[in-house]
Amino acid sequence: MDPLDIARWQFGITTVYHFLMVPLTLGLGMTVAIMHSMWVKTGQDRFLRATKFWGKLYLINFIVGVATGLVQEFQFGMAWSEYSRFVGDVFGAPLAMEGLLAFFVESTFLGVWIFGWGRIRKGLHLAALWCAVIGSWISAYFIIVANSWMQHPVGVEMGDDGRPVMTDVWAVLTNNTAIAAYTHAICGALVVSGMFLLGISWYHLWRRRHDGVDTVGADGRVIVGDGTAQGLDKKGRDKTDHGLWIWSLRFGAIVAILGFAGTVVTGDVQGKLMYEQQPMKMAAAEAACHTGGSFSVLSIGDPGGDCDDVTPIIEIPGVLGFLGTGEWGADMPGITDLEPQYVEQYGATLPDNPLYGERAGQTIDYVPTMWVTYWGFRLMIGLGGIVAGAAVIALWLTRKGTVPRSPWIMRLAILGITAPFAANIAGWIFTEMGRQPFVVAPNPDPSGIDQVFMYTAAAVSPGVTAGELLFSVIALTLVYAVILVFELFLLVKYVRGGAASAMPELAQHDDAHDDTDRDDVLAFAY
């Protein structure tokens, strides 16, 4: 067992799990802030219920995200110490800004928002939430700045000890790769939150129809019930409850559509930057073995093979050139042409250096795992398109104020919540694995810093053994599995409980000793 492979598996597993929380936190935080703003402006109860219900789910997701995110930074010193030494001078600034500025702003004002209900003025309370959300967006930017420097190192010069030294922090913070990646990630997060709202709201509207609370008239329009006849008003399932879910559903659909449109625009920018900065990643994403301008809709081949095993089945002439350069039909360099260039510039084998240990002298494969990049790229785009189409259909089906009674459509709506999560994860896996064999990709910019790069084989900690890493992989995976079970349990519990799960005062109890009917801020927080 190679410690490098195990270390990569560990980082991949923990990072993908952590990233399940990131887009939902970024997107849902913004939508909750909008809901809270609507309540402060209009005073309508449906917006208060929306703020507290979706805010409850936001808090659950936020705290799990914080807990799982801490492991990422510890891994830099545990499994990737050589990498930490190499990038330390550069990463110090953005990660310090993220931790000392953005994260503290985010967590401090979120605490004010949680415990400020009924204790501070509405305007200040709302401002606290906006500060927390903006802090989380700024925090995400600093993290992506660090990641984008690995994709496109700028603002540095090589020191005498062979490590990059930052000479221009502004160049690092305004890296064009970072700006493109950040806007793309934010738009993807909005798609996640939009489908989250849509799927859960669909479920509650379907339950209202299934339980007979809402009915449909001869014209097909909803007749909103108050739950009195069914004895359901004690669970907050009154007419205001209907307003909460139908508004949340349609708002979520609009957010998902706008978010997808944003990902298309920002993704196009990223594709053109990728062609300039990491042409091998672009070629692998298209299984473009030979130079040309045709876009592969479908190619088949041996997952463990090379270009000799790839056979294009469906191609669209000219599209690939447009994606890479903006010029229809332009030729894009293929893998067979790029690989000799990489070998000539960076060498055919790993250097004879103690950093590489037993891997020194091994042949370097500059082509990333093609089936991962090819299908990851298509899953990201395909699932995003499906989500946008589903959101449009949802707007049409709910135009008369409710959802169809079909349980199958309801199940599809709930299943649709997972689609943008999968699209986001596929995109990040493509981004990171497409950079291999580099952990810091070389910068082809002719500014004189093109030799700032690091092979992944040199980044792993030299003092760790395969057994130690295997133990940590198993331990972290088991711990994360337990955390996942608890998070899903909490989310499902409060989703099923509806607005009353975040507002106990909506649940009217006859038991005089039960104090859960109080409007207690601790009940909302915990």
From TrEMBL:
Keywords: Cell membrane, Electron transport, Heme, Iron, Membrane, Metal-binding, Transmembrane, Transmembrane helix, Transport. Signal peptide: none annotated. The keyword NAD does not apply. It holds the Pfam family Cyt_bd_oxida_I. It is found in: Cell membrane. The chain crosses the membrane at residues 20-41, 53-71, 91-115, 127-150, 179-200, 244-265, 375-397, 409-430, 469-492. It comes from the Bacteria. It is a multi-pass membrane protein. Belongs to the cytochrome ubiquinol oxidase subunit 1 family. This is Cytochrome ubiquinol oxidase subunit I. It comes from Microbacterium nanhaiense.
